[in-house]
Give the backbone structure.
Amino acid sequence: MDIQGWTYLIIGLSFALYVAVAVIARVRSTAGFYVAGQGVPAVLNGMATSADWMSAASFISMAGLISFMGYDGSVYLIGWTGGYVLLALLLAPYLRKFGRFTVPDFMGDRYYSNIARVVGVICAIFVSFTYVGGQMRGVGIVFSRFLEVDINTGVVIGMAIVLVYTILGGMKSITYTQTAQYLVLIVAYLIPAIAISVQLTGNPIPQLGFGSRLETGENAGVFLLEAIDQIHRDLGFPEYTGAFAEGGKSRVDILAIALALMAGTAGLPHVIIRFYTVRSVHAARWSAFWALLFIGILYTTAPAVAAFARVNLVQTLHERAYDERPQWFKTWEQTGLIAWLDKNNDGLIQYGPGAAFVGNPTRLSDDEVTMRLGAWGEPLLANEATENDNELFVDRDIMVLANPEIANLPAWVVALVAAGGLAAALSTAAGLLLVISSSLSHDLGKKIFYPAMSERSELRWARVAAGVAVIIAGYLGINPPGFVAQVVAFAFGLAASSFFPAIVLGIFSKRTTREGAIAGMVAGFLFTGGYIFYFKTIVPASTAEDWWFGISPEGIGTLGMALNFAVAIVVSRFTAPPPPKIQEEIRRLRLPDEV
Amino acid sequence: MDPFMNDIDKPGKRLDAAGYWRANVRILSILLPVWFASGCLLSIVFVDRLNEFQVGGFPLGFWFAQQGTIVVFIVLILIYSLWMGRLDRRYGRRGKE
């Protein structure tokens, strides 16, 4: 069977599995719809949380990013795992004990204010929509590459699947579907990683192969990382393992980005609500442990995959004749995600630092069907060549998806990786859609506009809201606003500078008042949003010298968070303390779990 | 040896809520600095100094940033969960799965 046949088979089977699981776990109550009836065992919730958390970006893009960024890419690994420590130690157990359905619920009740609730709803919806558009796009990319359907058709198929299980079973279906999706995605990630580790280093554990000696190629006998550093020096790149090189990120910027990602991760509503679904505080702590363990399996593999991909890319392509290019190069060339521009007319692929040409590759063609080809049979590009010697364009996103082909693995592995990418995107999309749905039906509908609403009609509205959210998400996937890729990173900055301080203070400082929390959230959100907006749209070509304290827009959430804490604490000092009822509730939050 | 010996509630007495919370905060004040040291100091602030040491095929700072700190984070949450479970039992309320 060929790759396409296998892909139809494996993706078809995995989708059938998800829908079957969802139908079995369908629900009839709001508690079931929002928080899966609060009966999910800790290990299962940990697994669901890790699938919920690991998105198309983690599965498809992260290793590719690290592969091209070297040490600087560590910031994603540190930020996206370190956040779980904050979540486990500072937020999850207390939020579970507080025992509401959503994050805006906590805001509204702890800060005895519907304004705080609405601010919470706005932040939750904004963060979730920026994130979900990227997931739907990921679904479309996988479909178009592996099933050769139109990207938009792919998005619609993905929407239909998510729609079925979100509307049927809400959180309960999502939980059990996500555990299935975790298993699919982790197997799909590990098989090619192990195979490539064995091929390159002879060590079947990628985390160890990463630090082993190469067994093949011109650098056989040299440590993998040393070989990459040497290749980088030869080609003129900064060293792969070196930190804070000229032109790279500075120490303070990396620190700021890591902290913003950590606090942002801990403040993301779709991750937090997963901890409402377990039976007890004790189970909430343990599910944070299981979640990070399951995430850690992929996150410690990713940098190994990145290094393997780096050495493979350079060794197989640099100074290689174009007409002897490998098969995977040809298939990905069709998608426009890899391209070659022969600047010196020698027919060889030269790779080096800098972009080969301006922008993404645009082919020259006489009409829709025939492309214009160059002297070596390569598609000619309309792009303007740059001054440097680099002739190769590689989209970072293809490194994980092309990995099995680069390593000559059988067709079913390629298909499994496609199914894994879809599992990662769909599981995250479902979690985000539930946040949007519950924010609308529960926080706005039930808590603000119609407190008298019956459970049955709230559930109906939750389903309608989920349906509408899926359609908007699909629209964003088909017509992605140009800034989606950047915006996802900023969702973290915004979550870090709005939710995180408000929740931490709400638990650890009884004295934090309604006014303090709202002022802090608004200040943090406006400051961070304004800084990002300014440097991304008004002065897009900014450099470290323009930034405050040398902190890039990606890391500014850290300052926004500090501002939020400061404003909230100061304003709370000068406003009336929270009512006794709230103080009593916070006191109960700090007691040991009920037997 | 147990840092919480002083906080143990005697059987039959009322729940010592303040003692439980103090012990809880103390656990955080031990674990969070480890989180910061591993994720921010070893992996970022002092990474270039640590890179002068080589462990197997890894420069040490680079290894911390891409592998070690994730392991430290997982172990931290494990210790936290075990420790808090013990604290819950000490204070007479048993955690349940």
